[in-house]
Design goal:
Keywords: ATP-binding, Hydrolase, Nucleotide-binding. With 292 residues, the chain is mainly beta. It has helices at residues 36-45, 190-198, 223-228, 275-278; strands at 2-8, 12-16, 54-58, 62-66, 70-78, 81-83, 86-88, 94-96, 101-104, 109-117, 148-151, 175-181, 201-203, 211-215, 234-235, 240-242, 250-252, 259-260, 264-268, 284-289. It has two domains: 2-151, no CATH class; 175-289, Cyclophilin (Beta Barrel), CATH 2.40.100.10. Helices cover 10% and strands 32% of the residues. The chain has a seven-stranded mixed β-barrel with strand order 12-19-16-17-14-13-20.
Length: 292
């Protein structure tokens, strides 16, 4: 079996594919890559199936060596990436000879890199997925320096004839996120609903793969909602904006719990969830109504 030996793993590196949907009734969240677009792009660039497992590298640095010739692509965050000491471009299929070092520096833009390797990271699947779920502990453990990871057999098809994918660096300024109001918007005052869209929110440093915590002016519950007390636990989905008693929303992400008792004021449009993978603590965001 071919392998990838990790030298430096950085603050957090996990194995991720497109997740394990369909098990919420068992208390298992979908998990998977936070930036699904970056994962699937990387896999296409190196000739893998889109849902092949890759490495999700938070911030960096990271280094590794494969024991066979491989093709790699680094997508998502932007920073210095080198093969054998020579810089390479992001979003670009690159040939790496066996024994040659792959080095990824700290991200200059965005937060999470995706390292796709031809053949994919071939750890054993759990419930149909190779993803690490940090909340439940399902799937492989976080990657550490010295780990030796199995690499699958590459497809026989040629690497796609694409010089570079037309993607830019993740936005370092304020971003606008489309959301749909509800299902518990009636638990909040009209002023709070207006503030949700008119205010500027800041990503908290307490954010992680479970949820993106937001700082700003707290949202207030309505008098009617306070009279009802707390909600019984109900099902949660990725993108739900839960509002705890502090009034500061948390956007649930891939490793979210499948149930929760805090009211959900709105839900992020599915296509916009990838934005939260690349937001950095302190970065600003605003919300707008999603198109029907």
């Amino acid at each position: 079996m071919s392998t990838l030996t990790v030298g430096i793993a950085g603050p957090l590196t996990t194995i991720q594919d497109l997740g394990r949907p369909g098990f919420a009734a068992l208390g298992v969240s979908g998990s998977g890559a936070l930036d699904r677009g970056a994962l699937t792009l990387g896999n296409r660039l190196v000739g893998n199936a889109e849902r092949a497992a890759a490495l999700e590298i938070t911030v960096g640095p990271f280094s590794a060596v494969a024991d066979r010739d491989v093709w790699i692509a680094v997508t998502g965050a932007w920073g210095r990436v080198a093969v054998g000491g020579h810089p390479i471009d992001p979003n670009h299929p690159t040939f790496v000879a066996a024994g040659t070092s792959i080095d990824i520096g700290p991200a200059a833009s965005g937060l999470r890199y995706y390292l796709a390797v031809s053949g994919g990271i071939d750890v054993d699947p759990v419930l149909g997925s190779r993803s690490t779920d940090l909340l439940s502990g399902i799937g492989p453990t976080s990657v550490q320096g010295g780990d030796v990871l199995p690499i699958g057999q590459p497809h026989t098809a040629a690497i796609p004839a694409l010089d570079v994918a037309p993607w830019s660096a993740p936005d370092a300024g304020a971003v606008t996120v489309p959301i749909r109001v509800g299902p518990r918007a009636d638990w909040f005052t009209a002023a709070s609903l207006e503030r949700l869209f008119s205010g500027t929110w800041t990503l908290s440093s307490a954010s992680n793969r479970v949820g993106a915590r937001l700082d700003g002016t707290p949202l207030e519950r309505s008098v009617t909602a306070d009279a009802h007390g707390e909600l019984p636990s109900e099902g949660m989905v990725a993108g739900a904006l839960q509002v705890p008693p502090s009034g500061l929303p948390t956007v649930l992400l891939a490793d979210h719990p499948t149930t929760g008792g805090y009211p959900v004021i709105a839900v992020v449009a599915s296509g916009a969830l990838d934005l939260f993978a690349q937001l950095r603590p302190g970065q600003h965001l605003t919300f707008r109504h999603a198109r029907p």
